[in-house]
Specification:
Chain lengths: 353, 353
């Protein structure tokens, strides 16, 4: 790479702002590789009558989505995605998935020819009864390679520089090294793997498993049951990945994006909380989403519906008893106790000597 | 097997009593395979002036170690281990590890020639700077095959018939089927694997990792850090197993004895609680054990010392940074912050394309 890499963050929510801060530290640290300024596309809105981009550029703080944290003076908020990405060599996608396609279309012809991207978008895209991987959608639309990043990362803790790990998946070792420079810090410990599909399957399905953990909690089930649900969740995540996406590897589930993120999501996190409240209150999931999330849809409930439709169309729901039970409890009025009952194996598998 | 199998439980604590109850249900269910009566060796003690064995045989309840639970009228408490095991075809070892050798010696010549055993003993045995697997020690002393059972199993929840899973490790598929009949129920879902060493390594090392989770809690660290510690713990458990014990398999860590038990032990459990109190109070671990456990030694602290000595003797402490940091924080006055600091990779591993 002859010229310095220009980095643009596409997104500026809680996680987008935290990750912009990490990148801005590293563009200074690795000044031989990166341009100092990190552009961050901010969907413009008014805060106390003032433009959010102006506040960020004056105070170096995203007062709306990551208050109290200095992002670094080299994070530059830009209200136009096209403008923000002009000449970019590295695009970091960290925005709600419903905006991905529109934004990608707007970036065509704007970015550098050698541009590479990385997706921090959660979830899979459900289209024509298929589940698509966002990094591959970005690759397809923009014609550039796209890696992915996911891990046990609560945004505010990363912003406070509490130690944590994450996983970067890059098919190309060269790009993997570039992303390592851009994201790795002493407190944000990155490991690079090659299995981008496995990483993104984990990021989507862990939210469904967390609904299962919440159902257990709502039923006041003990630790043994909850541990069984989380473990079966991990097994079904892996099985789902391997069955429907080529190249998914077992090792990926030992990474931060796998077992670590699953543990965090199942112990705290709003998917777990909402489904526990759903069981305890007897209200519909939509009512709970209205009450607890101001009408926003949970990632896990949407993914649960998509996974169930996907499996149904393939006559494979019985191969994924936990995912199926979670869907049926939440959307088909099934008895919540099936969360444990449907996991019973009746006959266990005896391995060959 | 031409004759019915006579089952003896060696041990009658909280877990021993719960498991005796499970076995007693299954000897009735599979009356073609097992003799109805399950003998349980009970270390005799007085409860309100009466022998514990007599209370158990009259009330069918272990009032001291599993109060409020009916064990089944076919559980017969016997105060003498030799007497309890006379003619036994199946021995279930579920007793504190310090008693194993003495009890095994006393059983020589008493049990049936075709007797098989299964070990539910937690931990590894540290001897001459080596770590020994209890099932293999039982095999060696008694000259009979010995399987092992471990999982995310809180004894009282199993006794209350809350759904949970466990793992049985048996080198022999035939014995595996026998143990499946003896332990599997609708609420206690057993999976049989062949990796007995991996299962027992998990059962021992998870307690050390739980000390690490407790140190995080004591320092008020967030979820990202705690998830990183648990994940690295899983990685080091597997690395330890593979490095020092032949035949340990990655799949074992996806079983209930692996990731599920680790999650449960790191979220509740006394190893975690004691180490959190250790950090918060500034007292020595011995003082905390005195205060919280009435002077009893924690499994995790003992194992931590043993693992550290074992690694030191082999100049391999640097290969297990988490296990080493935990030991140093607890026994060498190291700054507790090293629990996270020592996990920093500085350079991440980039996989080949």
């Amino acid at each position: 790479m002859s010229t310095k890499q220009k980095v643009t963050i596409i997104g500026s929510g809680n996680w987008g702002s935290s990750i912009a801060r990490v990148c801005a530290q590293n563009t200074i640290r690795h000044s031989d590789t990166f341009e100092r300024e990190v552009h961050m596309w901010v969907f413009e809105e008014k805060v106390d009558g003032k433009n959010l981009t102006e506040i960020i550029n004056e105070k170096h703080e995203n007062v709306k989505y990551l208050p109290g944290i200095n992002l670094g003076e080299n994070v530059i908020a830009v209200p136009d995605a096209k403008e923000a990405s002009k000449g970019a060599n590295v695009l970091v996608f960290v925005l709600p998935h419903q905006f991905v396609y529109k934004v990608c279309e707007s970036l065509k012809g704007v970015i550098s020819d050698d541009c590479v991207a990385i997706s921090l978008i959660k979830g899979l895209d459900y289209k024509d009864n298929n589940l698509l991987i966002f990094s591959e959608e970005i690759e397809r639309i923009l014609g550039i390679p796209c890696a992915a990043l996911s891990g046990a990362n609560i945004a505010s803790e990363v912003a406070e520089e509490q130690f944590g790990e994450t996983t970067i998946a890059s098919e190309s070792a060269k790009h993997g090294e570039l992303f390592l420079k851009l994201f790795h810090t002493e407190y944000f410990d990155c490991n690079v793997i090659a299995d981008s599909r496995g990483l993104q399957v984990c990021g989507a399905l862990k939210n469904v498993v967390a609904l299962g953990a919440g159902i257990c909690e709502g039923l006041n089930y003990g630790n043994n049951t909850k541990a069984a649900v989380i473990r079966r969740g991990l097994i079904e995540m892996r099985k789902f990945g391997k069955a429907f996406f080529g190249g998914v590897r077992t090792e990926t589930f030992f990474e931060s994006c796998g077992v670590a993120d699953l543990i965090t999501t199942c112990s705290g996190g709003r998917n777990k909380k909402v489904s526990a409240a759903f069981i305890k209150s007897g209200k519909s999931i939509e009512e709970i989403e209205q009450e607890m999330l101001n009408g926003q849809k949970l990632q896990g409930t949407t993914t649960s519906q998509e996974v169930y439709s996907f499996l149904s169309a393939r006559n494979m729901t019985h191969e994924f008893p936990l995912m199926t039970a979670i869907y049926r409890v939440i959307y088909e009025n099934a008895s919540p106790e099936c969360i444990a009952r449907d996991l019973r194996t009746h006959k266990a598998i005896v391995e060959k000597e």
